[in-house]
Design a protein that fits this description.
heterodimer; A: 151 residues; mainly beta; 5-stranded antiparallel sheet; 3-stranded antiparallel sheet; 5% helix; globular; B: Peroxisomal Thiolase, Chain A, domain 1; 9-stranded mixed sheet; 12 helices; 11 strands; binds zinc ion
Chain lengths: 151, 380
């Protein structure tokens, strides 16, 4: 048993999703791929949502993607573990699937959060058992101006 | 047109709408049900089918003293009542029951006897959406819109204008919560809720309820009101997680439900005199107009801007003022159905002269589910 360190609503893993949450705790973003039709999918389940095959494999994703859409919440509920303003975003991973997340290490403004900009995964540990996959702007390797956003 | 074998012969909302602190959720169901029974000249003992969402049909039937031989507790969010109408029409046609009562009640504002919003932490949305801090519909239903605005070139002004047009309809409706006219500037200067959504682009939150009574078309002329026939309908679901929509710029559930509704009713888009599209937020009529096929992809913002859904336009839409201005208890679909019935009866506050066909389209969850009903006042 662990003491929650965050007031954020902690996910409760199920047997079908445990590998994903084990992954985030180990600093990996784990996805699944169908061994019959090659479909990469999310959220986790022990079969392929495209062809219903039970032959699926887990793999560690690149952690790279693009900002697909988002809102910036202006008011957090008291004791929610969130401080407004904060973004609630959908990322399109380079491997295909989309997932909800927060964009961090960036001003929470429309000017800084530009659709389709590259992002990379980072992990926030909420408790001994749970780390959340969050995303931050990915600095271009040759960006002379240095890393984007706050670090 | 194909067939009109089932009709709506009773329809009513709760006596009050807005703030009703003296009624609990089941009390709102019952108030609406009793009003609908009065509207139809029926007693609870005349009802043999019960459908509801939010409460169990068991609770509603027992509370009202009904012993049903057919029940439907389909609960897929705010469009559940569209699905109930479709299921009830099929059940009546199949002879499973003769007279169905569909009820809705929700203490959206006062929260009297109402449950919470929390999703189980082990559900997929509890694991893969809730931890990122969406706090109710204003921060969930709105997430797809920036994608739509970029891909289909929708301006914030045209999004805001949806609320402006609906407020004009609400100004004609004495039961509407908000009736003072607003401008695009008013919408764009209202408080930011969740960028890019401002307060006036979001539904209000009120208390209320509604109920419908359906029976076979052959019996419809025995009732005091003008019968409103069910011409067709559709329903579908896509995902319990808005982040998992196949495409954030179009709703698969809308497209499937709409196509089924048009196919089953045998009408074309040009036949539609009146349209309701469930508008919890300003982008929903835009998605609905496109996904139901009234306009091409990317055209809905201009279509509304050019006045086609306004008074005197070719396709009057959300003529009660909608969820943005009329009322929104949480599961608004019942009020959209009520306005379609009023328009078909010829009793709406903003009545469309000569309207014969109304399409009523609902959404459930955050683009999770959909239901569409086609009504007419013309027997076939
Ligand atoms: Zn497969």
């Amino acid at each position: 048993m662990s003491e929650p360190r965050s007031k954020k609503p902690l996910p409760r893993p199920t047997p079908e999703t445990q590998h994903f949450w084990d992954g985030t705790l180990a600093g990996e973003l784990r996805l699944q791929r169908c061994e019959d039709c090659s479909k990469v999918y999310f959220p986790p389940r022990p079969f392929c949502p495209a062809c219903a095959s039970r032959s699926v494999e887990m793999f560690t994703a690149s952690g790279l993607g693009t900002l697909h859409s988002y809102v910036i919440n202006q008011r957090a509920m008291p004791d929610s573990g969130f401080e407004a303003p904060y973004s609630i975003a959908v990322i399109e991973l380079d491997e295909g699937p989309r997932m909800m997340t927060n964009i961090v290490d960036s001003p929470q403004t429309p000017e800084a959060l530009v659709l389709d900009m590259p992002v990379e995964v980072t992990f926030e540990k909420l408790s001994d058992d749970i780390a959340l996959p969050l995303f931050r702007p990915k600095a271009a390797p040759s960006d002379a101006a240095g890393p984007r956003g706050a670090s | 047109m194909t067939r009109t074998r089932v009709a709506i012969v009773g329809a009513a909302e709760t006596t009050e709408l807005g703030k009703i602190p003296d009624l609990s959720v089941i009390g709102l169901h019952a108030d609406a049900a009793l009003n609908a029974l009065t509207d139809a000249g029926l007693r609870p003992s005349d009802i043999d089918g019960v459908a509801t969402a939010g409460e169990s049909p068991t609770s509603i039937a027992h509370y009202l003293g009904i012993t049903p031989s057919w029940v439907d507790g389909t609960t897929v969010g705010g469009c559940s009542f569209m699905l109930h109408v479709r299921h009830a029409a099929a059940a009546i046609e199949a002879g499973l029951c003769s007279t169905v009562l569909i009820t809705h009640g929700e203490s959206g504002k006062s929260r009297v006897g109402a449950g919470g919003f929390n999703r189980p932490a082990a559900s997929l949305s509890g694991q893969f959406e809730a931890p990122f801090g969406p706090m109710g519909a204003p921060t969930m239903f709105t997430i797809p819109v920036l994608r739509y605005m970029k891909d289909l070139d929708l301006s914030i002004e045209k999004l805001a204008n949806v609320a402006v047009v609906q407020r004009r309809w609400a100004s004609k409706n004495p039961r509407a919560s908000f009736r003072d006219p607003i401008t695009v500037d008013d919408v764009l200067n209202s408080r930011m809720i969740a960028y890019p959504f401002r307060l006036l682009m979001c539904c209000l939150v009120t208390d209320g309820g509604g109920a419908l009574i359906l029976t076979s078309a052959e019996r419809a002329s025995d009732f005091p009101t003008r019968p409103v026939y069910i011409l067709g309908g559709g329903e579908s679901t896509e995902t319990p997680m808005v982040s998992q929509m196949e495409d954030l710029t179009t709703s698969k559930a809308f497209r499937v439900s709409g196509q089924k509704a048009f196919e089953s009713s045998g009408i074309s888009h040009a036949d539609v005199d009146h349209l309701m599209i469930y508008d919890a937020f300003a982008h929903l009529p835009i998605y609905g107009l496109e996904d139901l096929g009234f306009v091409e992809r990317g055209e809905a913002g201009d279509f509304i801007w050019d006045g086609h859904t306004d008074e005197g336009g070719s396709l009057p839409m959300n003529t009660n003022g909608g969820g943005l201005s009329y009322m929104h208890s949480g599961m608004y679909g019942m009020y959209a159905l009520q306005e379609s019935v009023r328009q078909m009866r010829g009793t709406a506050p903003a009545q469309i002269d000569g309207a014969q066909i109304s399409v009523c389209h609902g959404v459930g969850g955050m683009f999770g589910a959909s239901g569409t009903i086609v009504m007419t006042n013309q027997p076939s």
